[in-house]
Amino acid sequence: MLKRAFLALAFLALPAAAFAQGTIEGRVTSPTGAGLSGARVAITALDISVGSGAGGAYSISGVPAGDHMVEVRLIGYAIQTQTVSVTSGQTSNQDFALELQAINLGELVVVGSRTQPRTVTESMVPVDVIPVSEIARQAETNIDFLLRTAVPSYNVRVEPISDAATITRPANLRGLASDHTMVLINGKRRHRGSIITWLGAGLSDGAQGVDIGSIPGIALRQVEVLRDGASAQYGSDAIAGVMNFILKDDRDGGMIEVKSGSYYEGDGDMLTVSGNVGVPLGSTGFANLSVEYGNQDPTDRAIQRADAIALLGAGNSAVRTPTAQIWGSPEVNDDLKVWLNTGYTFSDDEQFYAFGNLSTKEVDGGFFFRNPNTRGAVFSGDGGESLLIGDVLMAKGLGTANCPEVRITNHVPDPVALAQVFADPNCFSFQEMFPGGFTPQFGGNVTDWSVVSGVKGGNEDGFTWDASAGFGSHTADFFIYNTVNAALGPETPTHFDPGLYRQDEFNLNFDVAYEASDGVHLAGGLERREERFTIGQGQDESWKIGPYAAQGFSSSSNGFPGFSPIAAGNWDRQNVAVYGDLQLGGSEDPWTLGAALRLEDFSDFGTQLTGKVSGRLQVSDAVALRAGGSTGFRAPTPGQQNAFNVSTVFDATIGDLVNRGTIPSTSAVAALRGGRQLTPEKAFSLTAGTVFDADAFKLTVDYYRIAISDRFAQTQTFSLTDDEVTRLLGEGITSAANLAEFRFFTNDFSTRTQGLDIVANYTPPSMGGATSFSVLFNYNGTSVTDFNPDVIDTDRVDQLEQSIPSWRGSLNVLHALGGVRTLLRGTWYDSWVDVGGVVIGGVEGTAFPGRLLFDVELSTDLTDDAEITIGANNLFDTYPATQDPDTADDVGLLYPESSPFGFNGGYYYVRVNYRWSWLTG
Question: Taking all residues of the chain, what is their mean pLDDT, rounded to a whole number?
Fold first, then answer.
């Protein structure tokens, strides 16, 4: 059986079978009667599908005689099914008139149960099913931002000057960290990203989640979001829920799309070209390929810093204008995403499948401005009263040069003394290299690839099985330029390779399911996972302590120190799991009960047992009640246990930059503040809700409560003593010579997160299905219920409790009239508290009022196969309230970096797409 599956590749090019008996053809139309191209018309039982072409026409040939259930899907429209009778040698005609649907609560979903797929309103726990239309109807191209308006409790935001978090943005579900949510592709676990978000806007500080930005929207058929604890079903990381990205599986036709846009301010220009194509492989196979390529310019919403204005006013024309420091979105170059999804079904219903991706991009962003008079250990050694002058002879051990003192008065170094320094080859100041100061530029080249392959099958007795293997890898190769290793003196390079992070994962799975009867469904499986986290060593100049360190110059590449031989390395972990599901309740029963158990053994944390129970009761034809309870856990990743990082942050209390390190919790220095070996988090989740389904109107309301004990995240910051710096240096961490403070991971606190999700849609029958309304609403609140005040201070508590708005909601209206399709969306973000990120001290507790943002989009057909869309996100150019004036003056930060909807303002865009069908023209 397995041998036949792997030999299937040899038969993928075979022509369609010659025993076809008949044909089904017809048209797919909108509520107004217009032909809809690109609809997926499928006979799912035969694994055959085609796309509708010009005027909505479709044709399925080679259909055996008999009755067949035909299903039609098109993004933005409700699914429609119809039984069609086929006679040998004849053509059966069947037309489909689709209705608009804003959020399709009737979609079949896979997540939430390992037994039979169910509709959203029939599921025992809350699940969102988001058709691609809901994702695509906005200006963004990255899937992490596209989901913000489609999932009520999902949050992601711009991360300026946030080290690697700028490269892979952390996303949050139900107010928890990004690595509390499991990500699946076609129901298979997705490997996590290599990025540890050391600066994750408080809530995700230190998280290591999945890089969902590597998934292009054009490759997706739909997204399923399970908003419930699911560790017992899917494993560690599924405390907040599960996101399952379903790839397109069309075997006919395709689409090309071009999207371009810009912010109202005239920056952030974006151009993306994407395409999708499906082809048949033999009589029952398919290959579906998606490719996306794009670039996006950076944005800047900063104002000129007060110290830069003073320098310019004093005649220093080398200071960068209009802003010495940038606050905005990074530049993204050569953003390439390639995904392939394939499958082939054998005559005995065994299916071979494989899917995978290759994604690459370069992300480039800015850091803090280094003032040429005051930046310590580079330009100054006494807080800006005089310049730090290097003695070349002393560094070479050849004596001492007679270097003059260069005093600074009214932002101007003594010109006579400075000229003497420049003229003497044995003396130097970094003002000779950077007379206007410098702003390091930091980024990374990201490579993400994966392949998953497997075989699945079943029999007529209700037994099914699925065996699969998958490998995934994510690498972030960092770079930093326009900076120095000051301890190397005038020999320093200005462009550095600090090293890389890489995450590799290998998964083996075997799943079985058995439908013992209409009311008894059993499922179970085995899983083995191996993962490795690697820190690649940086170039020597990025981490070395140079000969000028003894004179007060800082070591390592300024802004992001490279990884030294001690910091570099790789760390492995293995775990195995066995799990089982039981679901009771037949198609005629008003109730459904489910239970799941999972036993998982980690090579570094031992054995964990988790469980889940859930149930649903149909109270009436329109009303159902559902509830669930589960236990969960999350094991610290090898990266979180072993990685070392230095970030430069601005401390408003002292008015200067400080280097803040995150060190392993088992470090000798961390042990002085209570650091110890990390242990897994433990969680207990409850959810309870109701479903109201009255055909045209559907409503789900769900309450959730998630309690996490032994939660791990980064501690408060601790100041380093001279002795502790020496001990870190002794451990081989050379950049410790530049550290002012440090923190580490700890398990010393517990949290309780609770909230309410409301999802509703209404398609008024009186409007003929041409108009629909949908509402998304979320309330979320987190409380730190217990913590160790020796390692978690009140500032850190505030970050965990107040970093996102408590209330968020949106109203979406879709309307089709006269060939024009209109979307209007209003989204409300409640007030929030700026709890600091890369600007610390003096901003904690600053409250910002809520904002209402509007999006609009208009689409019309250019031809039967081509569509043009124009739209605007943040139509009225709404910004958050301005930052505290002192903070704005200090670092040029006009708007709070923690704004939940960003601070780039309004954005307009145009999108053109063309669809075709191989079979219908």
Answer: 84
